[in-house]
Amino acid sequence: MTNTVLHKASSRGHADHGWLNSYHTFSFAGYHNPERVHFGMLRVLNDDTVQAGQGFGTHPHNDMEIVSIPLEGDLEHKDSMGNKTVIRHGDVQVMSAGTGVYHSEYNHNNDRQVKFLQIWVFPDRKGVTPRYDQITLDVNDRRNKFQQVVSPNADDEGVWVHQDAWFHLGQFDKDFSLNYDVKKKGNGVYAFVLSGDFEVNGQKLETRDGFGMWDLDNFNVKALTQDAEILLMEVPMR
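RESULT FIELD:
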């Protein structure tokens, strides 16, 4: 029997620091909800808006796969591995923190805000060598289909992580419907609506709603509004 969990957008944790406006789907920093610590190996899903010229100062991470997906504007990244890059809408960034890494993230522009998703996934092993990667994808390749943006395999489309996890983005016309097949038995899928309205496995969802499903082989995704966009994150549940 399929298990599900629904997280409405309005139920998320929220922190407004002035320079940073952040919504937390799962417990993070000052927001702690014992019912919402993680979804399987998905540990953090932060929906961040950073004001012009502002950002996160240098800070450490270890033993976590960190995926950043810019939604609007330009995000500047610097790390202790010597990388200094800018990621934009259409890009996907991954950092395996492993044995330890320091990095900073800033709004690259002084005249407009940047919006991005920061997603943390528990790795399948500890103590890996830290690494960084980013790619640019054609956003048209997610029109009325699922565009793979994360996988466990370096040879596949998207960036790769140290975990049996697959992420897909899709942007659909109104009433367009598509099935998603779970890639690995025992995995669950967390759907996060970026814009518009959807029906996912029979559950109606609105912008920024999250919906987790496990103990299932496949499910249907249907757009209820034009240009609706969704992120599917498939992760091991144990």
